[in-house]
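Help wanted!
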Amino acid sequence: MRVDGKPEGLRQSMSWVHTYSGLLMGWLLYAIFFTGTFSYFRNEINDWMRPELHTSVEDEHTLARVLATLNSVAPDSENWSITLPGPRQVAVSASYREPNTDPENSRASTKRLTLDASTGEEVQARETRASGFFYRFHFELHGIPRIWGRWIVGIATMLMFVAIISGVITHKKIFSDFFTFRPKKGQRSWLDAHNATAVLALPFHIVITFSGLLLLTGTILPYGSQGVYESGSNFRGNRGNTGMQSAREVTAPELPSASQNPPIVTALTPMLEEAQRQWPVNGVGSVTIDAPNTSRLMVTLNERNSASLLSGGRGGGRSLRFDGTTGKVITPETPAATQETSVIRKIRTVIVTIHEGRFAGPLIRSLLFLSGVLGTFMAASGMVLWVVKRLPERRKLGRTPFAHRLVEILNVGAIAGLSVAFAMLFWMNRLLPADMEGRGEWEIHGFFIAWGLCALHPLLCSHRKAWLHQMALATLMYALLPVLNALTGGSSLVHSLINGQQSLASVDIILLGMAALHGSVVWWLLKKPAPQPAPRAARAPRPARAAPASASATPAARTRNKTTDASASLPSSAALATDAVLEKAT
Amino acid sequence: MMIVISALLLMWMGFVALATTMAKHQDALGSKLFTTRQQYAWQAAGWILLALSLGPCLLRWNPSIALAAWCGLLTIATMALGLMFTYTPRLIGMVKMVIGVVNTFTHRPAAQVSG
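Answered by r_m:
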């Protein structure tokens, strides 16, 4: 794509493709990566956002209490199912099917309850839409028709895929630069950071982008499934358009207080011991009881978290089924019902499961989260790099072209602004009155208002100041959130760590991590000397500090690097002055 | 937890071994004067260590998940080494000493090799 029509190599043309496929959708991709990364912890965040649940602490009597509650609420139910608290949920979720209902409409008769693990009583949590909102945002945006949102995200994902592949081709020295990060060298450092975050988590980036595309195929290429199924709506990819939020809105009746231990508890104890013996590591995650309070009683215990990627991460674990009256195991360890599935189907399952991380225990979840953070940083550094790389050109021109200024403004608004807006979600969640009408909506409004303000703010001040202000604001907002959590009825980090409320503790820790991340950017910006009329004096200690890392660089290259560094992310006029002096010196 | 730490350690050592043959890190790791033979040996050791690091993951997880975890841990190990090269030259100096010691113990004089 050279204007002068000269031939160019593969690498150069790929470099061009990489730059513009990345830049065009960069801000959107950044937002998708950001919200998608947090979606790995959306169950945890959903717990955090309902402080009413935070008193729930599991102990050995939790199951007994839950059974007592179910026994008093639905003694005649044909089926109870209970999911115990775990790394991803702090409260007990239970559901029961009501007897004697219309057989044609079985779904509506299932009632769901959220129970406090320490009391066994039902909890009426506040309305919150925040975690569902950012999860949905990462694949269908917000405020536009769902199908459009998915199309836009799909196109952005495709461009991401293009950017990753062309980026690998463009990157000349993947292996010799593998462990290299050279700080304090302006463009060089940004390029190193961009490369490192891209290459080191490359398997993740490729898989997540490709699987993201696969997940959206139902929307973008519906023809295959339309051909097979009549309406296409049976296909998984379109599931979001039909069901998904159906059963959640069902409200439960008022609970009478829990009665004495029902006989079923005594029957269950040996079964639980047996399960604990067989699965010493993971333990029991959920319990299903068929026909409670009858002679046909049947108990199924499911192991917590033991799936493989092939099983799609759900229900693939081992389970034990007991005859309730004799207490005997009916089928010892039934493996997951292995249906005959095609290879293509299996590959899809594996790839999609990795994307959604449904299989992941706390450790792998944090690995996925960290890789997501790297990906988010990769997108951000790529866009900053676009600006930094064009500073010499700008200096030559002696002014800032409109496009450059536009990218600068969008960078601050999209990158720093999103951090502030995301923190705003958490703040709104706690500051809006718990019983407010439409508070779920207002959490989301708060997010967009904050983001909009952050997008306008860089118009009013210099590029550097805009970064500094917004990053400082984000740092403050994230750092204070764990405090706000404890002050507004939530379980403090100390409390949740002591009581093993993993989901709550992990959110608080992530928020503190976000504060540290943004804080270090603020620190770095502050340490970086502001544009000054006498740049040589301000720059004097630099070369000495940078020396060990740049031992192999030639003096000329070092000066050049220094020059770019001085002007990186500074407004162009100041950079021009700095540069003129330095160039004279060389 | 022990499993994760051991996997990370194996990976990290594997990456150090691989880095000894990379031009950029030969100064820091003192491997500039390695003979070709030594370079091959270190490289082989590096790959073997990386392969071995899959072992602990397989002990902990079902194979499909173990691979995913292994990739994630590789990212952490490389990041750690990369940041150490930049920010903890002293620690890298210690690594250099260990490499030197290992080398003196395993080194065969060049005459024997060529003869």
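OP: Thanks! One thing I noticed: The mean pLDDT of chain A is 79.
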